[in-house]
Each structure stands twice: as C-alpha cells, then as structure tokens.
Amino acid sequence: MQNPNINTNCGKSIASSLVVASLSWPTPWVVIVGSFLSTFGAALQCLCSAPRLLQSIAKDDVIPFLAPFARVTKSNEPFLGLLFTAFIAELAILLGAVDDIAAVLDFFFLMCYAFVNLICALHSLLGAPNWRPRFKYYHWSLSVAGAFLCFFIMFASEWHYALIACGLTLAIYKYVEWKGAKKEWGDGIRGLALTTAQYSLLKVEDKDPHPKNWRPQLLILVDGKYSKETIDLRSVNLLNLAGQMKAGRGLAITVGFVKSDNLHGLKKRADDVRICGFSC
Questions:
Q1: Angle CA 100–101–102, to nearest 5
Q2: I need a labelling partner for 115 at 20 to 30 A (CA). Which of 11, 40, 212, 215 fits?
Q3: What are phi and psi of 105, to 5 degrees?
Q4: Where is this gene product found (predicted)?
C-alpha cells in the first residue's frame, strides 16, 4: 500500500491521499493507525457500556417491551443487551450511510450532555440538599452555558435532525410520565414547583396584603373516626362550609388523624370534598 488513504463515498479521497496524514511526522502512518485505534476504541467502549445501560433501563420497568433485556448471565453480563447492541451497530454499518447516521448519534449525545447540564443547574438553583458539587469554582451558570452550547451546535448544524432528537426525547419523557413509574428518581419539575410555591408564600408575608388581594386562609381540624366498613369523615359538612367560604380561591389547611390502611379510599374521600393536597 504505497498511498494510504481514507476513501470518500465516491471511492477516492482528495488527490488520493489523506491531507492530515501527509502533514504528519515522522510518517503518514501515525494518523492512519491513530484513526483506526481511536475508532476501534470508541466502538468497544460503546459496545461495552450500551448493553449495561439498556439493562438498567429495562430493570427500572418503565418501558414494558424492554423487559427481556433486564436478564443477565451468571457472571452478571447483559448478554441479550449485547446481542441487541451488536445487531443495531451491524445494521447501521450495512445501511452504507454512516455519515447520515453519525449526525443523529451525535445529536443524542449532545442531548444527553445538555440535559446533564440542565439538571446540574436546576439542582443548584433549587438548593437540593443532595446536590454537593466538589468542584471549587462550580457555578450554575457554567451548566446553563454548556446546555446552551449543546443545543446551539445541534440546531446550527442540522436543525431538522435536532427537531427529531428533541421530539423523540419529549415522547420518551411523556411516555414515562404517562405510565406513572413510581421510582426513586426524583422529579425536577416537581422540585421546581415546590421551590416556587415556597418562594411565593414567603414573598407574600413581606408586606401586608391589600384588601382587594385578600384571600381567606382557613385552618380546619376534623375528627378522623371511622368504621371498619367505610371511612366516615364526620366533618364533611365543615369541609363543605370551608369550601364555600374560600370559593376555590383561598387556602384551607385541613388537619385530621385517621388510622387506616385504606389510603386509596381515604384519598378518594378527600377528593370528594375537594381537598387538593393529600399527605400521609
């Protein structure tokens, strides 16, 4: 092989040689071998990490059709996930359009990095107690800048692929939200709502409210006695009176101690009297 080159889709490179390789020292083989090792190493890394990631997603049981990939071998290896990953990689190679597929893959990596940065920024802004970055000079603005750069690169290069990647990500999120998976992941949107509500309540106490902005705030103590057959809240009339007084615009805090294992029925009865918040 006298003129090592990397061919284009037409079968030849520019002047039948690799420009960077011709400029390398001491020999063009440095770039040729380096490119091969870099590509091979990245492929092995993805082939090792992707099956375990697929196995973790299947184990969380949020996407039902991925359940078979949750199984592992005796040596704790996701063999089915490895076969599925190798099949996808081989299928992409056989399609013969690696350049088109590479853009989509790059966008999914950029989406991953962008959301990691957004999560870090959100945790910092919300002051989550479990978020303690060790980097001395970390600031939430760095994460916002990183997320902005990821989205900017996506839409600046191929905006239609970027829209497809964002659409698929939104569809996966809405599917998991619709399925209602009860996992200990936490929800950044819920944390943001809680922080906003806390900030708003504290902001209201700074100044005396104007009479036009007054809203009734009631504290209701109810009797929580019940029978074994049905849950009987004896203060339903009191709750209805409070609902009429605030007319759906004020704040009513209802306190009652109910000893029961039928939490679903208790919550349904609370919904019947329009108690929006429920905790036990």
A1: 90
A2: 40
A3: -65, -40
A4: Membrane
